[in-house]
């Protein structure tokens, strides 16, 4: 995939802090700013380490946008305590997103209750009911929408690759996310397209177009599907161009909706995490300039 | 998952030879017959080892049915030689299925051309076009249909889990398989439901019902989704009940279509392959009797 050669314009490129896992929030923001990126996507763990107000200040001082906060969700608990704890944690995440100046709170909705620990025991009776787990997600999103709306924050549903359906997200396709979102205002419930999770979907083009038409396309995240798989499945992701995803085509589908937001690079990969921060940022900038930017 | 307790009736249970990888066709057939199973699902490698006519004789002598032949497919080659070779190999598989006395030839359609070797190099320009690869599958299925019809064999499209979209099958959902099949007679192009590959699908119930209504439900294969993943992703499958799949629910959905065919157990798992054949068969018989048969 050679891609077109164009003048680099990194104003819509966003560094998700998960891509530079070894860096503090300050270090990640500095690396993004040095390279000329326009935004950062923040994970709550890095924000908690630096402090909420301080994190907001760090990003403002660097003149960057916060493209999204990752992540709320994990709404599938079957018991009352689990439900209460999840709602409380998501309200905190909504407040954090508003304080950081981003509208978009990415939601990883959670898997089958007993599967949250892959190393855990076999799931007990009843917990294999994925249909019921999905309904709990819909119910709890409904409980969170008014609070999110008050704070000007949008719950951004993320379809995770079906390989994570058991332990991380019972939302597996963009169509499924949009069907769930349809019961709520577009300002309060959106969707994000993460190429790693949805590249294989035969309905991807039509559902990206639908997300745009419904005003729910809240984010575009890029990273590649690589083989062979890493021993830690969650971390088996690569730089754009290192795997099997057709970035020009999917980026065109996103651009055709009129999407004018940031493009976040979120990569889970130990060998990338082991690289120096500036090297990681320069690599994603080069790949973005070649495989994504020309098609936006 | 306790399941209901009923009298074991293994007449619709089929042992797929991939589940007993260490056994010859004769040994697998003997183990299935000893345990009282009604059928076997055969892989072409075991048939080739025993010889085609001899394999048919072995199954007949044991009084078993052949529920399906695995597998045809791998139709995504982008070059003429690859196309010709694939059509030739699939015509041979169609003849083998007819000779073995089964109507159902399971088709694993193939992945992105350059991804067939997971350990191979990064894919070259162009080969990331999954939309074009799917079209080649549809075109080549169309080329094979007349030959299959002449031999009374049905091309059974198998949706593989999206984790295999790059290297094994660009058909990832039952809906996608049925959309492709719609251009052809139901007697010539069907679909198989393999729980391992489709359990996560939010549209599974509706598409199983559709497959039944369209007369295309050609097979039902069961094995479980287990965590953590095996180092060899293809072999990360388990006995029914050892993982996260809701067999009673999915089996009810299949039964509601009026499906009266065999239930094949096809499990890829090194630790199971290392067990004695009779132990494997008795385990799948026990799991089937508890988790599948009561809901058929």
Descriptive notes:
The structure is a homodimer. Helices cover about 40% and strands about 15% of the residues of chain A. Chain A is built from 11 helices and 10 strands. Chain A has an 8-stranded parallel β-barrel with strand order 1-2-3-4-5-6-7-10, surrounded by 7 helices. In chain A, strands 8-9 form a two-stranded antiparallel sheet. In chain A, α6 (about 175-180) links the parallel β5 (about 155-160) and β6. In chain A, α4 packs parallel to α5 (about 130-150). The longest helix of chain A is centred in the first third of the chain and has 21 residues, at about 80-100. Chain A is globular and about 50 Å long. The relative contact order of chain A is 0.16. Residues about 115-120 of chain A have low confidence and may be disordered. The interface between A and B is large, with 43 and 43 residues.
Index terms:
11 helices; alpha/beta; 10 strands; two-stranded antiparallel ribbon; homodimer; 296 residues
Would you list the SSEs of chain A in sequence order as H and E? EHEHHEHEHEHEHHEEEHEHH
Structure class of chain A: alpha/beta
User: Considering DSSP H and I runs of 4 or more, what fraction of the residues of chain A is helical?
Assistant: 40-55%
Say what oligomer this is: homodimer
Q: Largest sheet of chain A at a glance? A: 8 strands, parallel, barrel
Shape of chain A: globular
Distance between the termini of chain A: 16 Å
Number of distinct helices of chain A? 11
The pLDDT mean of chain A sits at 94
Work out the strand percent of chain A.
15-25%
Count all strands of chain A and give the number.
10
